[in-house]
Write a structure and sequence with these properties.
This protein is α/β, with parallel strands linked by helices. It has helices at residues 23-37, 85-97, 111-121, 136-143, 153-163, 172-180, 205-215, 235-242, 265-277, 291-299, 316-322, 335-338, 353-365, 367-384, 387-408, 436-446; strands spanning 2-6, 41-47, 56-60, 63-68, 105-109, 128-131, 166-169, 188-190, 221-226, 248-253, 283-287, 303-306, 327-330, 345-348. The protein folds into 2 domains: 2-194 and 386-446, Rossmann fold (3-Layer(aba) Sandwich); 205-384, Glycogen Phosphorylase B (Rossmann fold, 3-Layer(aba) Sandwich), CATH 3.40.50. The strands form 2 sheets. It has an 8-stranded mixed beta sheet, sandwiched between helices. It starts with a strand and ends with a helix.
Length: 450
């Protein structure tokens, strides 16, 4: 199968840790690589943000990253890319209109990628699969006036829910949000994010450290949190909880490199919060790290804490599970799927330092519980979240779509004229109730291994 992926801002080649680099980069790179290993030809189209980038860069066997000229060849904040999606889609249409150039299926990652995908696929009648990774309606609900998304994002997401041939959601909680936006549950597949089970493996560092600390009479609970240094990740909640968990320390991984943390606004805010809570000596910010360094820090921990205000899915909990470490996380979004409360980790309400502190004290006071949760987390990760499993499930969604289109005929669409994308009017903030069909789709995933 010839597969095209669109990931307009999240290049598979990007380094993790920047404000607009994160789990989507890993997801796209890993999924594309695994699909290539299964014998499919994959091209990932992403925006050129530097003149130094070659147009085509090999990522893995049978997988190339293609840089598209859309807007200036410089780094542009994600929320400012909307105006360039018309040019992005026109470039794709030009490429795919050439003899033999059209892919068998297009998989768009993020809503702006979906708009470019609609623009390019409609005239060619190529099937379009949409994965949102994050929804504007959810972001606005939690961030309010701090949401910097382009005006009309939700309206464009509604359009994608109507016009994409199939939607791949990353967690069961997302299904209800998609249905509220007008998606047909019959066209939704739930396929989670994945984790590299060969790279993220259990280690003995944590046990060795605890033994040494115990012998020295200074046993501690070492916690690690990994993610971008942005307010919605809820790291301040962990800092505040730490004040009520004697003997615990926190390592914060993410943000700019360690030598640039002093100039980072969020890092400064977290340090001030730690000082105000009286735990400055127990909170250590280490900046961005390589995946191998992240793995080693997770292995050397007792637990990974992930307490965002909201989370479309979250790869960090899977990396923790693969390393055999329990997750203490917010009971939101994808964490409701990836963390089984009391079985592979502990879930608490978001933005609740008191509840989080109580959960952390449970782990501190019961090392055997911590070990049991971590061991169960690894087993579940092996069963559900390896990239091979995720790639096969995604491929099944592609094949179902292509098979149904062969039987039913092409989708009815209007020809897209290559003119600038229009900005939709702001959408209302109302949310419909979950339908029974949405709940059925949600349960079909939640029932596997839960």
């Amino acid at each position: 199968m010839k597969i095209a992926m669109i990931s307009e801002h999240a290049s598979p080649l990007a380094v993790l840790g920047g404000v607009d680099a994160g789990g989507q980069n890993v997801h796209v790179a890993s999924l594309a690589t695994r699909l290539g290993a299964l014998g499919h030809d994959v091209e990932v189209f992403t925006r050129r943000d530097s003149r130094a980038l070659d147009e085509r860069v090999p990522l893995a066997p049978r997988v190339d990253v293609v840089h598209v000229d859309a807007g200036p060849p410089v780094a542009v904040p994600k929320d400012e890319l909307f105006e360039h999606m018309g040019a992005f889609g026109d470039d794709l249409l030009r490429r795919w209109s050439a003899p033999g150039g059209a892919p068998d299926v297009v998989h768009a990652h993020f809503w702006m990628s979906g708009l470019a995908g609609l623009r390019a696929t409609a005239p060619l009648d190529v099937p379009l699969v949409q994965t949102f990774h994050a929804l504007g309606s959810v972001k606005r609900r939690h961030q309010g006036a701090k949401d910097t998304s382009p005006v009309g994002r939700v309206a464009h997401e509604r359009r994608l829910c109507r016009e994409a041939d199939r939607i791949v959601a990353t967690c069961s909680d997302e299904v209800a949000e998609l249905v509220a936006l007008g998606a047909d549950p019959a066209r939704i597949d739930v396929v989670p994010c994945g984790v590299d089970l060969g790279r993220f493996t259990p280690g003995t560092g944590g046990a060795a450290r605890r033994g040494a600390a115990g012998a020295a009479g200074a046993a501690r609970l070492r916690l690690v949190t990994v993610g971008r240094l942005v307010e919605r990740k809820g790291i301040e909640t962990i800092v505040e909880a730490l004040a009520s968990v004697d003997g615990a320390e926190l390592v914060v991984v993410g943000g700019p490199p360690a030598d640039r943390l002093e100039g980072d606004e969020e890092a400064g805010r977290l340090r001030a919060a730690a000082a105000a809570a009286g735990v400055a000596d127990r909170v250590r910010l280490v900046g961005s790290r390589t995946q191998e360094e992240v793995r080693d820090l997770v292995r050397d921990s007792d637990a990974v804490v992930c307490t965002p205000w909201y989370e479309p899915f979250g790869i960090v909990p899977l990396e923790a599970a693969a390393c055999g470490r329990p997750v203490v996380g917010s009971a939101v979004g994808g964490l409701l799927d990836s963390v089984l409360d009391g079985r592979t980790g502990l879930l608490v309400p978001p933005r609740d330092p008191r509840a989080l502190a109580a959960a952390l004290r449970r782990l501190r006071d019961d090392p055997r519980l911590t070990e049991r949760l971590g061991a169960a987390a690894r087993v579940r990760a092996e069963h559900l979240y390896g990239w091979s499993t995720v790639a096969h499930s995604t491929l099944e969604a592609y094949e179902r779509l292509c098979g149904s289109r062969t039987a039913d005929g092409p989708r009815a669409t209007a020809v897209v004229v290559p003119t600038p994308l229009r900005r939709a009017a702001p959408a209302g903030s109302g949310r419909t109730e979950r339908t029974e069909r949405a709940d059925e789709v949600s349960r079909s995933w939640a029932g596997t291994g839960r």
